[in-house]
Write a structure and sequence with these properties.
Layout (H helix, E strand, L loop, with lengths): L1 H26 L3 E8 L2 E6 L2 H39 L7 H20 L10 H10 L18 H25 L8 H12 L7 H14 L8 E2 L4 E8 L7 H11 L3 E10 L31 E5 L2 H16 L1 H8 L10 E9 L2 E10 L4 E2 L2 H10 L4 E7 L5 H7 L4 H7 L14 E7 L6 E13 L3 E5 L8 E5 L4 E12 L2 E14 L4 E5 L22 E4 L2 E4 L6 E4 L2 E4 L6 E3 L4 E9 L3 E7 L4 E8 L1 E2 L8 E2 L4 E4 L10 E8 L6 E3 L2 H4 L2
Parallel strand pairs: 6-9, 13-17
Antiparallel strand pairs: 1-2, 1-4, 3-5, 5-6, 5-8, 7-12, 10-11, 12-15, 14-17, 15-16, 18-21, 19-20, 21-29, 22-28, 23-24, 23-27, 24-25, 25-29, 26-28, 29-30
Helix pairs in contact: 2-6, 2-7, 3-4, 3-5, 9-10, 9-11
Length: 667
């Protein structure tokens, strides 16, 4: 019996030791958790990766609901704030309160933007200090503003917030009490009644600012089905004996403090090196196919655009096309319903983007500018981040070219901003309002057209020299009359500005009649006329760029174009001296190409650029007469196609001030 008792004791001791060892091993066996990183920075440890991802997605619905709720309240408050400015004027008993209320709101906004939660200055001290000092000193009594920040920051913010609430309540009570006596519309009365009924006066100004900012920061969530973790999140599985971990909510809050979440969308990269032809189906139809041609471009800066849907980008490009060609013309082109050219007219052959466009689906940070409607994107692609627009008032003495020049825009920009004008010869009346809008295009929309036009054949001015007349004296022996020519050409426009013209054919319908002028000398005078200038090319021309400011055809930004670009007469067409004078420059320049400057010996100078070659027998010092061939149309130097660049300069030397040549040539 004793023997069995010993065995039993040994067995029990063995079982006990085994259980103790099992519990020890079990207690100190490593657990599986997940380490969350943001941009390689440790954020915290979580228990479940799947639960974390589900939680983030669930926040989308919560944020959407909050944005929608805040939007309703903020919109109501905005309406009433606008109503204040209508009702309260200088004669009103609450005007002083209202004036100070506006200052207080402005001050709060500056504090919100330029001072951190800890009271440290994060913005411009001078900007804050100027407004700070414009407020009643009693409001900020006992506080001190320095270049490093504000003492008692929370106190002053609360003080301002309470004052705003108090003063606004008095004004709102006044408007509500007198809503039937004041000059309010039925809609405005309804708004103030709705404001009071919903007790929106309980929303302090600080809450209003916070909610407005919340809507601004999170409105993109309204256009997403789900939200995802921020870019840069990395979750690694770890095995650890440390059983401490963070709640999913705490990790999420810590992450979004540092970086916003993302939504599904699309990235369009606009690469300014090659181009895709978009044939007359849909503008984006050729992207991603082999139906393209390469276009050279000097700029290499890529532009990134984010959209919620690819159709937003497609529609934006179509809206740009409509801006430059018109709705009816674009729809006819798109649907292959353009009218055939019988006698005269035009037909769109191609519309395409000069740049190479790539698209890829991606998760986008909501802090990025994300476009969810085509109109906003079209505006950005045409004008950039900010539309620079203003109104000026013309005088009867202004011309379209002079007004465009004075305001730093091109003639094409003038017509785009003022569609009621259709010719550079349109006249102004004194005080006529004119819209000035500067383009800052992010893409190059190319439109290729076939045009058949009847153009005037300018009559030539023929001089006859008469020894019986005093040198410099002139007399018209025969008046001239213009002829008519039918010109068939292809025209390429980039963002509305002509960049290339190619002559296909021309046919004379009516011959011109020369104007004969008797000039009082047998010699060819080297003194030009100040009142009579000859056109420097044959007829049938197209003016592709006027004197004044324009967007560079080479993508070099805004520039002053110092003359006229005359194209459409064909490569190798003769270039004529516009007036009598002496050749003082005959050389090559990287920009002007082959060019000549003529001194007319009367304070005027003329320049002829981009010529393919010079007329044989002419050199520096040669005297030339009006209408004499001095060279031939080309595209040397900086030129997008064959044309003549023509300038008139006024002053004591050949570097004198440039001026608009058109008024001289049209005399």
């Amino acid at each position: 019996m004793k023997k069995y008792m010993v065995y039993m004791i040994v067995l029990l001791i063995g079982v006990g030791v085994f259980l103790l060892q099992f519990n020890y091993v079990r207690k100190y066996q490593p657990s599986i958790y997940y380490q969350v990183y943001l941009d390689n920075e440790k954020i915290g440890v979580i228990k479940s990766k799947e639960e974390f991802e589900r939680y983030i997605k669930s926040q989308g619905a919560i944020i959407k609901e909050q944005v929608e709720k805040y939007s309703v309240d903020v919109d109501r408050v905005k309406i009433v704030k606008e109503l204040r400015s209508k009702v309260i004027n200088k004669k009103n008993i609450y005007y002083a309160d209202y004036a100070q209320l506006i200052k207080l709101e402005n001050l709060y906004n500056i504090l919100y933007e330029l001072v951190g939660d800890d009271g440290k200055l994060v913005g411009d001290y001078n900007q804050l200090n100027k407004l700070y000092n414009s407020i009643n000193k009693n409001i900020i009594d006992g506080t001190k503003l320095t270049e490093s920040g504000i003492e008692d920051y929370d106190k002053i913010k609360d003080n301002i917030d309470n004052l705003i609430t108090l003063k606004e309540k008095n004004i709102i009570d006044y408007i509500y009490s007198n809503r039937n006596k004041l000059d309010l519309t039925s809609n405005e009365r309804s708004n103030i009644e709705d404001y009071v009924a919903n007790k929106l006066d309980s929303i302090s100004y600080s809450k209003y600012v916070y909610r407005s900012k919340y809507i601004e920061d999170n409105s993109m969530y309204l256009y997403a089905d789900n939200i995802y973790e921020p870019l840069g999140i990395n979750i690694k599985k770890i095995s650890t004996y440390n059983n401490e971990y963070m709640s999913i909510e705490d990790v999420y809050d810590k992450i979004v403090e540092k970086k916003p979440c993302t939504i599904e969308g699309y990235q369009f990269k606009i690469k300014k090196t090659t181009g895709v032809v978009l044939n007359n189906k849909t503008l984006m139809g050729a992207i991603g196919t082999t139906d393209y041609k390469t276009i050279s471009n000097s700029s290499t800066e890529d532009i990134i655009v984010y959209v919620t849907d690819p159709e937003v980008f497609n529609s934006a490009i179509e809206e740009l096309a409509i801006v430059f060609v018109g709705t009816d013309e674009y729809e006819a082109y798109k649907n292959n319903k353009q009218k055939e050219i019988t006698d005269t007219g035009s037909q769109i052959e191609n519309i395409y983007l000069k740049e190479d466009i790539t698209i890829r689906p991606t998760n986008i940070s909501v802090k990025e500018k994300i476009y969810n409607n085509s109109s906003d994107l079209a505006s950005y692609l045409l004008y950039g981040d900010k539309i620079e627009t203003s109104t000026v008032y013309a005088s009867a003495d202004d011309t379209i070219t002079s007004l465009a020049y004075k305001n730093g825009i091109s003639v094409e920009e003038f017509f785009l901003s003022n569609p009621n004008f259709n010719s550079i010869y349109n006249m102004f009346y004194d005080g006529q309002p004119i819209t000035i809008t500067k383009l800052n295009p992010k893409v190059s929309l190319v439109i290729e057209e076939t045009q058949v036009e009847d153009k005037s054949i300018d009559f030539k001015i023929v001089e006859k020299y008469d020894n019986n007349m005093i040198k410099g004296e002139e007399k018209v022996e025969q008046e001239g009359s213009n002829g008519l020519m039918r010109v068939h050409q292809t025209v390429q426009k980039v963002n509305g500005s002509i960049s290339y013209v190619e002559l296909i054919s021309n046919e004379t319908i009516k011959n011109s009649k020369d104007k004969i002028v008797l000039v009082g000398t047998k010699e060819i005078p080297n003194v030009g006329s100040t009142s009579s200038w000859g056109w420097p090319t044959p007829s049938g021309y197209t003016l592709t760029s006027y004197f004044g400011y324009r967007s560079s055809p080479f993508g070099w930004g805004r520039e002053l174009h110092s003359g006229l670009d005359i194209a459409g007469v064909g490569y190798g067409a003769p270039v004529y001296a516009s007036n009598n004078g002496t050749i003082v420059v005959r050389t090559y320049h990287y920009s002007y190409g082959n060019y000549i400057i003529i001194d007319h010996n009367n304070g005027y100078w003329s320049l002829y650029g981009h010529m393919s070659r010079f007329q044989n027998g002419l050199s520096v010092g040669s005297t030339v007469s009006r209408g004499q061939t001095i060279g031939y149309v080309g595209k040397t130097g900086s030129a997008t196609g064959p044309h003549l660049h023509f300038e008139i300069r006024v002053g004591k030397n050949l570097y004198a001030n440039v001026t608009d040549p058109l008024p001289y040539l049209r005399k």
